[in-house]
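User: Please fill in residues for this 216-position structure.
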C-alpha cells in the first residue's frame, strides 16, 4: 500500500522532492558546523592543557648568582694596561657590594670608576669612587652637575673638597669629596653622608699619596 506524502506544517502541504533535498542539505550543513565548533573548542582545550603542563611541570630553577667583582684584580689589570697607578678602595663587604668596575668617560676625561650599592636591600645608598685620568680642573664640577664645593675636610692628612648636593638636580647624589692625586682627580660621591665618604676616602690614602709622589 502506497504511503501518503508527509504534510509539512510550515507549508500546509507535502514537500516537493526539491524541498526535501534542500531541507536535508541544510540539516547536514548545520550538523557539520556544530561538529567544527566542537572540534575547535576541543583543540583549544588540548593546547591549553599542554601549556599548563609546560608551565608547571618543567623545572624552572634560579638564575646563577653573579660572580663578585674583585676590585683589586680589575684595578691591577687596568694599571698594567694604562701604565699608571690605579686606586683600589677596600670597602667592607658586609656594608657594600660592587655593582660595576671599569673605565668610564664624560667625553673628554676617561675615569676608572667603581660603583657600590648598599649590601642591605632596604638601604638606598650607593657610592662611586672615580679616578679621572689627567682630568682638567672642571671635571669634578661637570660630574656633579656644576656644583661648587662647600668647604674642605682633612682625611689622614689629605685635604678634600666637600660638596653637599641637591639630590633632585644630581641624579640622587647627595654628597661628594674631591682631591687631586698627581695628574689625576679622585672623586668620591653618591647617595651617602659625609662620614661615609670620609671613611671611604681613608681607604685610598696610601694610593693618593703614591700618585702625588710619582708626579713630583
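Assistant: Residues filled in for all 216 positions:
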Amino acid at each position: 500500500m502506497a504511503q501518503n506524502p508527509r504534510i509539512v506544517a510550515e507549508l500546509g502541504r507535502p514537500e516537493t522532492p526539491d524541498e526535501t533535498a534542500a531541507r536535508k542539505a541544510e540539516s547536514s550543513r548545520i550538523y557539520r558546523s556544530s561538529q567544527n565548533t566542537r572540534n575547535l573548542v576541543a583543540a583549544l582545550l588540548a593546547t591549553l592543557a599542554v601549556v599548563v603542563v609546560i608551565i608547571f611541570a618543567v623545572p624552572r630553577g634560579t638564575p646563577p648568582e653573579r660572580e663578585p667583582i674583585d676590585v683589586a684584580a680589575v684595578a691591577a689589570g687596568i694599571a698594567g694596561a694604562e701604565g699608571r697607578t690605579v686606586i683600589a678602595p677596600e670597602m667592607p663587604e658586609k656594608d657594600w657590594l660592587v655593582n660595576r668596575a671599569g673605565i668610564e668617560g664624560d667625553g673628554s676625561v676617561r675615569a676608572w670608576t667603581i660603583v657600590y650599592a648598599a649590601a642591605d636591600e632596604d638601604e638606598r645608598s650607593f657610592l662611586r669612587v672615580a679616578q679621572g685620568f689627567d682630568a682638567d680642573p672642571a671635571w669634578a664640577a661637570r660630574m656633579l652637575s656644576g656644583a661648587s664645593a662647600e668647604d674642605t675636610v682633612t682625611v689622614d692628612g689629605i685635604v678634600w673638597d666637600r660638596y653637599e648636593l641637591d639630590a633632585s638636580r644630581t641624579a640622587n647624589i647627595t654628597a661628594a669629596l674631591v682631591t687631586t692625586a698627581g695628574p689625576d682627580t679622585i672623586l668620591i660621591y653618591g647617595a651617602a653622608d659625609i662620614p661615609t665618604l670620609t671613611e671611604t676616602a681613608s681607604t685610598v690614602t696610601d694610593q693618593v699619596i703614591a700618585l702625588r709622589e710619582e708626579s713630583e
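For context: The two ends are 132 Å apart (CA to CA).
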